[in-house]
């Protein structure tokens, strides 16, 4: 299994979209305040700005850094860790193994150990590729 990371191109496009959302939030907030709209209208613009800032930081980090956040946390031991897990302090998950059975592979969908002659994964039930 490999860690599944978002591509740099889609991350950059997400960052650009977040900047557009920030600009929209600023315009919305200023327009609503200038028109004398009720308080929740400018607040909506502020929330848009905050969400845009968080999204921009996430996407631009994934687009420009070597150690990107994983879209799905599926990694082998010794691979590049997900920086979000390091930041939170999450422990590494242990891979499930079939007790007593000589597992000869892993399910590409959920990562559970499976035997060579299995047609379906015991954990997720999906058909295994041959």
From TrEMBL:
This is Zinc ribbon domain-containing protein. It comes from the Bacteria. Keywords: Membrane, Transmembrane, Transmembrane helix. Residues 106-129 form the DUF7577 domain. The chain crosses the membrane at residues 12-33, 39-60. It comes from Candidatus Alectryocaccomicrobium excrementavium. InterPro entries: DUF7577. It holds the Pfam family DUF7577.
């Amino acid at each position: 299994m490999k860690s599944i990371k978002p591509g740099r191109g889609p991350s950059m496009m997400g960052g650009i979209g977040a900047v557009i959302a920030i600009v929209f939030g600023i315009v919305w907030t200023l327009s609503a305040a200038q028109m004398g709209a009720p308080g929740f209208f400018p607040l909506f613009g502020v929330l848009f700005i905050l969400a845009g800032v968080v999204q921009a930081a996430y996407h631009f980090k994934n687009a420009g850094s070597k150690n990107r956040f994983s879209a799905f946390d599926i990694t082998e031991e010794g691979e590049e860790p997900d920086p979000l897990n390091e930041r939170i302090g999450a422990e590494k998950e242990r891979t499930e193994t079939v007790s007593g059975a000589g597992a000869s592979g892993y399910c590409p969908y959920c990562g559970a150990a499976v035997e060579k002659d299995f047609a379906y994964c015991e954990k997720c039930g999906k058909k295994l590729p041959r």
